[in-house]
């Protein structure tokens, strides 16, 4: 069976197509995904795609949006310094996450994969199933397996959506646990999420710490 002849594309056209694709998608897109979708019919190597992306990053230097390497791919986003001025575009002010929920997320991010029991050991308090569910619903964490101990508890890890939201390319980009300022900055924007503040679920009401009262 003869293979389909691949089309040629010049560097300028390649940049235009990549730029338009990332703009339309509005989320992190990998080079592999670009090759398998919009560039599937073109004779272009990964190296040429990477070069075109690097040139686009240079083109957007000093502008209101930038092309960032996030979650194993690339996406356009507004520059951080404009964030306070863009807030009025979102008319509804979303509720905040509790400190306890953020602590749970941080334990999962830094110790993954972890069980609910592991999280409780680190935090020193019980963790509500509501907390785990809210983070899973946000698609920041997911179950990745079971720990081979009695009861086979679920193991949780972060997702590419977690990396994308926090502007991280890989988990290795998390700031050191000792870097308190960087950690504070990492979680500073979580307050604007459309998720409930409650940490305490219907079970373990007497045992679970309500960190927002600290």
UniProtKB/TrEMBL annotation:
SUPFAM superfamilies: Winged helix' DNA-binding domain. PANTHER family: SEGREGATION AND CONDENSATION PROTEIN B. This is Putative transcriptional regulator. Residues 203-214 have a biased composition (Polar residues). Gene3D superfamilies: Winged helix-like DNA-binding domain superfamily/Winged helix DNA-binding domain. InterPro entries: ScpB_csome_segregation, WH-like_DNA-bd_sf, WH_DNA-bd_sf. One of its GO terms (biological process) is cell division. Keywords: Cell cycle, Cell division, Chromosome partition, Cytoplasm. The keyword Transcription does not apply. Residues 194-214 are annotated as: Disordered.
């Amino acid at each position: 069976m003869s293979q389909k002849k691949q089309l040629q594309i010049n560097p300028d056209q390649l940049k235009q197509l990549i730029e338009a694709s990332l703009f339309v998608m509005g989320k992190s897109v990998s080079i592999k995904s670009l090759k398998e979708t919009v560039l599937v019919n073109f004779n272009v190597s990964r190296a040429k795609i990477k070069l075109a992306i690097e040139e686009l990053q240079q083109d957007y230097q000093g502008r209101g949006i930038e092309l960032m390497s996030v979650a194993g791919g690339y996406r356009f986003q507004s520059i951080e310094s404009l964030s306070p001025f863009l807030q009025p575009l979102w008319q509804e002010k979303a509720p905040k996450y509790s400190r306890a929920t953020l602590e749970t997320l941080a334990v999962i991010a830094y110790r993954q994969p972890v069980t609910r029991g592991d999280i409780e050991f680190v935090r020193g308090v019980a963790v509500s199933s509501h907390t785990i569910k809210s983070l899973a619903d946000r698609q920041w964490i997911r179950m990745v397996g079971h720990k081979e101990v009695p009861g086979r508890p679920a193991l949780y890890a972060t997702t590419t959506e977690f990396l994308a939201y926090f502007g991280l390319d890989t988990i290795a980009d998390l700031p050191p646990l000792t870097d308190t300022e960087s950690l504070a900055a990492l979680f500073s924007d979580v307050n604007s999420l459309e998720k409930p503040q409650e940490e305490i679920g219907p079970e373990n009401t007497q045992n679970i710490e309500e960190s927002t009262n600290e």
